[in-house]
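> call design_seq(struct)
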């Protein structure tokens, strides 16, 4: 079998941590702390090309730990002063959050306040997690109060920082086991006026759905009943669709019902064709024709599942959205989809037989095999 080696991506997030960023950070710290040895950051520049993103963040953090005062409250004042200069942007702030995350656990009160401030400049969603683990009651009380903060970033942080399966963050196993712990935060934010916050609530629920699907569908049912105004109803409708995306792909009956879709559809597959042979980088073309045999309109969620071959010869399914729509009584639908199979950093491709399935309203209704060639 042939595998594809990841190509260098010049736009990868890790390139935010470069020589220019190190020089800028050293200058800003030196303004607040003249004794700072800027050379310790400058010397990192030659090593950065060998490191991936998190390793770069950790390397910068470790330099700050050794070069800033050993007295944490004093070092934290410097970090906060650097932030308030408002000269660092985006990912360049991440090492400062890491510094607080690692050094500040023995001073959780001032550290939580500092992370609250930092999240208004970048995000503290990863840095808050060690505090949740070590001081669960105090940290959750603090974050619950953040749900009524005037700052949208702080409110969003309350939800995002407590996600059980936050990307790039350590898992919160206590929350995986018992999702009700974060219920007060989600309840407080479900009608938030900012989409930015509601999106985090939906992603938070999507995380929970991977372990407790019934909990999520029941919670969303309750929220739907609590929505008293047209605006609140629209908020919950949007959250519901986003929060249930994993369960909908899995064909979960309760999730489908919440978005007005019956499990399985009254349709017949007239045509389901796929390009039989392609090379890596080419398009896999899917052609579909179906006909309703229902006497009334139907809501359809149409997905396709590609079973990509793995190194062991088995296939790993990946669900892709095709169309969500209403099909009229006895109506015919014809669709064509081009799916480009190209190298990406999150997947290795292997030459040989692959699979594709057509799923409608959670039920697989047709499948085909196709061949991938890798040169």
């Amino acid at each position: 079998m042939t595998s594809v080696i990841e190509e260098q991506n010049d736009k990868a997030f890790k390139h935010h941590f470069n020589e220019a960023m190190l020089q800028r950070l050293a200058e800003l710290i030196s303004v607040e702390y003249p004794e700072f040895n800027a050379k310790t950051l400058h010397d990192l520049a030659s090593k950065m090309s060998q490191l991936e993103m998190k390793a770069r963040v950790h390397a910068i953090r470790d330099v700050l730990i050794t070069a800033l005062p050993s007295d944490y409250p004093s070092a934290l004042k410097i970090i906060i002063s650097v932030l308030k200069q408002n000269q660092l942007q985006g990912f360049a702030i991440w090492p400062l959050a890491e510094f607080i995350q690692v050094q500040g656990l023995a001073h959780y009160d001032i550290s939580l306040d500092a992370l609250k401030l930092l999240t208004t400049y970048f995000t503290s969603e990863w840095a808050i997690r060690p505090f949740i683990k070590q001081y669960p009651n105090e940290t959750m009380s603090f974050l619950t109060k953040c749900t009524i903060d005037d700052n949208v970033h702080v409110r969003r942080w309350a939800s995002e920082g407590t996600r059980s399966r936050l990307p790039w963050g350590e898992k919160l196993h206590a929350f995986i086991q018992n999702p009700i712990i974060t219920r007060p935060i989600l309840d407080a934010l479900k009608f938030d006026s900012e989409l930015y916050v509601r999106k985090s609530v939906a992603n938070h629920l999507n995380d929970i759905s991977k372990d407790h699907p019934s909990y999520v569908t029941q919670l969303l049912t309750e929220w739907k009943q609590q929505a008293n105004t047209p605006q609140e109803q629209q908020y919950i409708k949007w959250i519901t669709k986003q929060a249930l995306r994993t369960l909908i792909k899995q064909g979960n009956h309760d999730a489908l019902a919440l978005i007005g879709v019956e499990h399985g559809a009254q349709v017949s597959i007239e045509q389901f064709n796929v390009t039989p042979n392609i090379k890596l980088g080419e398009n896999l073309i899917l052609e579909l024709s179906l006909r309703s045999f229902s006497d009334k309109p139907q809501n359809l969620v149409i997905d396709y599942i590609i079973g990509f071959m793995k190194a062991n010869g088995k296939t790993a399914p990946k669900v892709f959205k095709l169309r969500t729509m209403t099909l009229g009584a006895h109506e015919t639908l014809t669709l064509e989809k081009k799916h480009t199979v190209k190298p990406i950093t999150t997947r290795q491709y292997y030459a040989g037989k692959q699979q594709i399935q057509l799923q409608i309203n959670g039920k697989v209704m047709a499948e085909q095999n196709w061949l991938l060639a890798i040169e």
